[in-house]
Amino acid sequence: AVNESAITASPSLHRAEEGLEQRTIEKDEERGEKRKRNVEGGRSPLLRFMKRHLSVTLLCDQSWCELKVEYGFRHPKVRKTDKQRTEVQTGANIHRARELEVHEVVPVNTQTREDSFAIKLLNMLHMIPILEAGQCVREFPVFGLLEGVFLMGVVDELSYNQKGELVLNELKTRRQESLPGRAQTLSHCFQVGLYKLLFDGLVRREARKEHLVDNLKLRASLELGAEVQAYAGRIGIQATSFGELVDTFLMIMSCSEVPCVDLLQIEYRHQDSSSLISTIQVPFDEVQLRAELQRYLAYWTGQREPRGVDIEEVYKCKMCPYEEICDWRKNISQAPETLHTNKRIK
Ligand code: SF4
Predict the structure, then answer these.
(1) Which atom of ligand 1 is nearest to the CA of 326?
(2) Separation between Cα atoms, residue 271 and residue 82, nearest integer Å
(3) In order along the chain (346 residues), what is the average pLDDT of each group of 10 residues?
(4) 317 CA to centre of ligand 1 in angstroms
(5) Any idea where the domains of the chain sit in the sequence?
(6) Residue 261 C-alpha to ligand 1 middle, in angstroms?
């Protein structure tokens, strides 16, 4: 069902929120220099790259090639090709248009990181009653502590099927009118699995105020901006400080009747025609998913070195902006037999 009256954060606000994740080129360069100075410091990638949390999409990038993720931090000036950027932008535009089908967007000015996260919480609080009423929501933020690391993401869509099951749907747009290959499909399945773990954790009241405040280094006592407080009042939430809002959020979540996710699916659409390529159902195996997550997090927490692609997946290097500088790639061409004993994690 479509809810025409739902309200979510504004484009300006989205930009503010994305500011936590998406750095400007200038910032990239500045931080890149700082990272280079720290890279030999023997500290974990989480510390070296100043990550307070990991995003689900970053972990999915890691599942494609871990070394590519590391190079992305170490060489922030190397950019995607124009073709890749166009593809990503087209996909983002399609997602935005889909969100606007079910949510009205209002502009809210944010001044601090606490304001930005507050809007995330307020959007969730606004969408919870819609979900409880059996309707569809899009761009639902999720977060939580998994295997000792704070993760954040945004679920494309949550809705109910005819059996009344809660369906988590991830939209993937594609330049080619065909399904992706195995490696990309596995990465997408990992992504929706993580979303379910995070969403279910929120529903099961596993979130703690200290997880949020301590991991993200947010100031609980900080007063929210005037526009954020006004927006909160508009959706019936009274909170003057960030900490009060977190308390309210946790209290409302604890009383919520929203169920855990029953079904995971990925919807593949052609970018040019918007036609549906296929919708696939994704099985959920929590033990396997957590084991996979632990293997990826072992890199972030400094328990092992980053790894490049498997010898069977060197085709990925052809699309990689770091191909020219990649040591792993050089080793493949110089001594491919050694890589047979160095399989990428999977
Ligand atoms: Fe990974 Fe290949 Fe890129 Fe190296 S060139 S970072 S192994 S995808």
Answers:
(1) 4
(2) 16
(3) 40 40 42 48 86 96 95 81 72 77 84 96 96 95 96 97 97 93 95 98 93 95 96 94 97 93 97 92 97 97 94 90 90 59 42
(4) 5
(5) 6-306, 311-346
(6) 35
